[in-house]
Amino acid sequence: MGVSAGIVVTGTEVLTGRVSDRNGPWLAEQLRLLGVDVGQIVVVGDRPDDLRTALQFLASGNDLVITSGGLGPTADDLTAEIVAQVQGRPVRLDQELEQRITAIVEVLSARFGGLRDPESTAIATRKQAMVPEGASVIEPAGTAPGLVVPVAPGRAGPPVIVLPGPPWELQQMWPVAAATAQVQSVLVGAPELRQHTLRLWAVPESELAATLRRSDGGLDGLEITTCQRGGELEIVSRYAPEAEVAQQRLVSAVQEDFPEQLFSLGPSIDELVAAALRERHWTVAVAEVATGGALSARLAGGQLLGGLVVPTESALTTLAGVPAELIAASGPMSPEVARLMAEGARTAFGADVGLGVTGIADLPGSPSTVHLSVVTPDRALARSLVVAGPAGIMRDRVGPVALHLLRQALAGSG
Amino acid sequence: MGVSAGIVVTGTEVLTGRVSDRNGPWLAEQLRLLGVDVGQIVVVGDRPDDLRTALQFLASGNDLVITSGGLGPTADDLTAEIVAQVQGRPVRLDQELEQRITAIVEVLSARFGGLRDPESTAIATRKQAMVPEGASVIEPAGTAPGLVVPVAPGRAGPPVIVLPGPPWELQQMWPVAAATAQVQSVLVGAPELRQHTLRLWAVPESELAATLRRSDGGLDGLEITTCQRGGELEIVSRYAPEAEVAQQRLVSAVQEDFPEQLFSLGPSIDELVAAALRERHWTVAVAEVATGGALSARLAGGQLLGGLVVPTESALTTLAGVPAELIAASGPMSPEVARLMAEGARTAFGADVGLGVTGIADLPGSPSTVHLSVVTPDRALARSLVVAGPAGIMRDRVGPVALHLLRQALAGSG
Question: From CA B3, how far away is CA B379, in angstroms rounded?
């Protein structure tokens, strides 16, 4: 049945949504690349009992457990201690590690104007240098070391990899943890686990259900999940190499039923638009209102020559070049204004392709119509949609529509 | 010990990070407002066994379990069925519900150009209208109904609230689910649970540890968690009303030790900057490179008159008004260029306050220095920082620095 792992993400800040977790999914994807299947991610607050029961829950069905977070210097950071207890391993001070952390902290503190309180820093450092007996230490990428903690001799249970919460640190330290002998011995049995994604535009999930039902039997060996969001429908299959034939059958069935709507056999819409622009050696510029700068940010780097965020009539006129008379006649939200915004962005930055998006930034919740326009050297496309909801929802809905309009305009151009 | 709840978020797309979960934290906060404590959020893929073990795990220690997702029309959406099994409740077709869903689906399909495959849609709708015996139905906000499923008579266990995955639908349906008699009877015992946040700027977590240690004993009854990110240090306490005195003691201790660095007793930096601008009746404009439009998006609505994304020298010159000679002399990344970008944004949009941010958008990973400048009608402040990492990391690091620079400039102005 292969090798499986469970992930614990700690931190009340994650549990309460003040910080959104990126570590669990990132680790799940790294593990998949190693052939390890992740069935559960558990998010717990900084409480000893909640962490303990989560570790015990995941230990019972998995070959490996990974934790993220809870390695900081304050008293609520208690992952290392609880993992040691669960694994039946006493902790000891690693004096050399303590010295290495001290050196790191001194460098960091200098940025904040030097150590205010050397004594409390020493206590904090000592806490971070406590290592369970028999554990491997993963050197810190920030200040907190990671650990690989095997279960105590004579007891059954998977090893636990302990990593810090900041994503950048965790990502640097993961390969080192994965390379330890304790983890490698678990990975020995992991088979290849493939993953493939099909992406459709403007297809309701219920229609896809019919395609999948018709192909049933022929798709044995594929674990298929579908997900609809922002107008896109994503079909992800995970499978062992033996099921590659079934996967090809799935691709053919979807191609046959949705020839127009299947827009990608893998890459995201952002990647496809960036590649289409590069291929044509075309640059792009944006003039936006409803998305408040988020579309520029999404296209940033690569072929973006610039962006204009023009939420006022005066900015629409002076910067995006939309005539004041047109705004007076049609209002600041009309297909014509979107078209002139796209043209205005092209002109202002000297870009080949222009994207214009009208609307209201930071909409309080009542429905509003957003007009979009894409202008390339040889054609222009337009789209309008009605959106309700706060600013975040609006960006989630308008962003994909804008990128698909760009994709469609580029597909027929150049 | 109060009332506790566990949350299950389903969906392979969440487990693998293709969609980041907003429902778990949102539900945790709604439950806290009702006095219910959430100890764990479990994320599982669309597999019957993984969902079943997660439900059993959470049922054992909680008074209430909530699920999000897995109510769609495809075969991998199986939450309602598994919850019914775990609660020991057979499912039956609710024909009236089936008719109501059919009516909704017909309206939605019209947007996609009508039903392509009425038969498959009928099967999908019937699947969504299967209701466990004794369950309350929560009317759909999209197409999927929610459920409140009590445990079968004679068995022990908490009721399970079943809600759909799209955040907008879940948020509309939650109040209805919470108002059902089954959930209200659980909430009866819930006490008031307060939460308070202190925010510090540029304080290392280890320094705060000393303050907390010194106040220890005086802080009994507070559950304190601290979290450092992007230069901010957040201290969140959760407590029963009896511990209000301890909370005041915490606030005083932090005020005393960090009078300069404590910038908020609650609101986020974004809220504080927006309020400071409103209070002075000042507008703001942005010229940015490294953040690619993300700073405009963060300030959008309210007092933002506009934004310029100017990643090329030509755009810097023509739109932000930075003289080509200066760029030739100092390069496109210098404190002088940042200052002129801030001035240029003020001029271009006629704003009171200008923010300029240099750098490289979509940086591939090598360290780069980003210069920031804020210009108000009566002063100018500058900051520089070295950032390494991909575009997302860069925005995470530069965003808070820019907002705190705005805060500091506004605090001394006007």
Answer: 53
Q: Are A61 and B53 in contact (CB under 8 A)?
A: yes
Residues of B in contact with A298 (CB under 8 A): 293
Would an 8 Å CB–CB cutoff place A32 in contact with chain B? yes
Give buried/exposed letters for A214-230 (b at 16+ CB in 10 A, else e): ebeeebeebbbbbbbbb
Chain A CB within 8 Å of residue B268 CB: no
Compare CB distances from A311 to B291, B306, B350 and report the shortest one's residue.
B306
User: In whole angstroms, what is the distance from residue B211 CA to residue B227 CA?
Assistant: 15
Place domain A3-187 in its CATH homologous superfamily: MoaB/Mog-like domain (3.40.980.10)
Asked whether the beta carbons of residue A19 and residue B301 sit closer than 8 angstroms, the reply is no
Instruction: Tell me which CATH code domain B270-411 carries.
Output: 3.90.950.20
Class of B194-266 in CATH: alpha beta
State how far the Cα of B126 lies from the Cα of B123, in Å rounded to an integer.
5
Q: In one letter, which amino acid is B93?
A: L
What's the gap in Å between the CA of B356 and the closest CA on chain A? 14
What torsion, rounded to 10 degrees, do the Cα atoms B86, B90, B95, B100 define? -10
Separation CA B134–CA B152 (nearest Å): 8
**pLDDT (tens digit, 9 = 90+) per residue, B52-104?**
999 999 999 899 999 999 988 777 789 999 999 999 999 999 999 999 999 98
Q: Does A33 touch chain B (CB under 8 A)?
A: no
Helix H or strand E encompassing A23: helix A23-33
H or E element: which one contains B382? strand B380-387
Mutate which: A4, A7, A14, A16, vs B, most B CBs within 10 A: A16
Calculate how close chain A gets to B336, using CA atoms only, in Å.
Answer: 21
DSSP string, A217-247: TTTTT-EEEEEEETTEEEEEEEE-GGGHHHH
Say yes or no: B253 contacts chain A, CB-CB below 8 A: no
Residue A91 β-bridge partners: A132
* Helix (H) or strand (E) segment spanning residue B403: helix B391-411
CA angle B86, B88, B94 (to 5 degrees): 105
What is the interface pTM, i.e. ipTM, of the complex? Answer: 0.81
Chain B contact for A286 (CB, 8 A cutoff): yes
Domain residue extents for chain A: 3-187, 194-266, 270-411
- Rounded Cα gap, residues B20 and B356, in angstroms: 31
d(CA B56, CA B65): 10
Residue A157, classified by CB atoms within 10 Å of its CB into exposed (0-12), middle (13-18) or buried (19+), is middle
B280 near B301, Cβ under 8 Å?
no
* Residues of chain A neighbouring B226 (CB-CB closer than 8 A): 72, 74, 76
| Alpha helices (H) along A63-145 | 79-87, 95-111, 118-128
Handedness of CA B103, A383, A301, A292 (dihedral sign): negative
pLDDT, one tens digit for every residue, chain A (414 residues): 589 999 999 987 788 777 778 899 899 989 988 999 898 999 998 889 999 999 999 999 899 999 999 988 777 789 999 999 999 999 999 999 999 999 988 887 776 666 667 887 888 889 999 999 999 999 999 889 999 999 999 999 999 999 999 888 999 999 999 999 999 999 987 888 898 999 999 888 878 888 888 887 789 999 888 887 778 999 989 899 999 999 999 999 999 999 999 999 999 999 999 999 999 999 999 999 999 999 999 999 889 999 999 999 999 999 999 999 999 998 899 999 999 999 999 999 999 999 999 988 766 667 889 999 999 999 999 999 988 777 777 888 899 999 999 999 999 765
HSE-up of A155 (CA within 13 Å, CB side)? 14
Length of chain A: 414
